[in-house]
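Figure 3 (text version): structure tokens given as input.
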């Protein structure tokens, strides 16, 4: 459980030095918008991994009174999907907290929040090889600030930007069904809670946060 545990993400890494973390233990990200923290964690991908992660996150969500949070399984975790593919958590026949998932390199990440909507994405530099159509997804102004945070590596900078954009459109509940990647802009990064707080413009401004994870980037965005 993360309830009552000290926040380990209080010292921001310098821009020129990447630090890799492991989110296997549930972590709390506070103050990314109102209405309580975002709780996130990872597990090995596979059958039942989503439900297992959700139970772990529910158990660490402060003040949530559910069968899972109290250690009981009397309320089974049921995951549904909206028409646009957004996951929807049901507990005891009622909508539960907002949840988001991302899978990469054999691992599954999940984020959960009690208020508003949340989006999570993990992107790896291997997804952005030299023949990737950069101009169709990223602005030159975005690379101007992202490359210095990634030791000058373009593929790693692309992973950072994509994770932020994908997390934002997931938080909006639409994915890239109605927005082109160039219509989503990541800007104004600043060190925050062991990573980087970024504003993502996607029709409206969403608060987001990213940190290095497993050789790539993990990003979380809130919509409230």
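Below: residues designed for each position.
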């Amino acid at each position: 459980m993360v309830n009552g545990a000290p926040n380990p993400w209080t010292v921001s890494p310098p821009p020129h030095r990447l630090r890799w973390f492991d989110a296997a233990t549930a972590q709390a990200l506070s103050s990314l918008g109102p209405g309580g923290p975002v709780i996130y964690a990872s597990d090995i991908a596979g059958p039942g991994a989503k439900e297992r992660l959700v139970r772990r996150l529910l158990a660490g969500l402060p003040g949530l009174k559910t069968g899972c949070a109290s250690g009981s399984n009397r309320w089974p975790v049921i995951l549904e999907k909206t028409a646009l593919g957004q996951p929807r958590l049901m507990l005891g026949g009622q909508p539960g907290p907002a949840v988001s998932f991302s899978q990469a390199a054999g691992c599954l990440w999940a984020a959960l929040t009690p208020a508003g909507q949340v989006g999570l994405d993990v992107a790896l530099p291997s997804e952005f090889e030299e023949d990737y159509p950069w101009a169709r997804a990223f602005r030159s102004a975005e690379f101007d600030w992202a490359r210095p945070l990634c030791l000058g590596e373009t593929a790693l900078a692309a992973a950072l930007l994509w994770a932020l954009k994908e997390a934002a459109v997931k938080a909006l509940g639409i994915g890239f069904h109605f927005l082109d990647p160039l219509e989503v802009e990541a800007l104004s990064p600043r060190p925050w809670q062991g990573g980087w707080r970024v504003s993502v413009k996607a029709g409206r401004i969403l608060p987001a946060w990213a940190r290095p994870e497993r050789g790539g980037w993990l990003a979380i965005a809130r919509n409230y």
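The radius of gyration is 17 Å.
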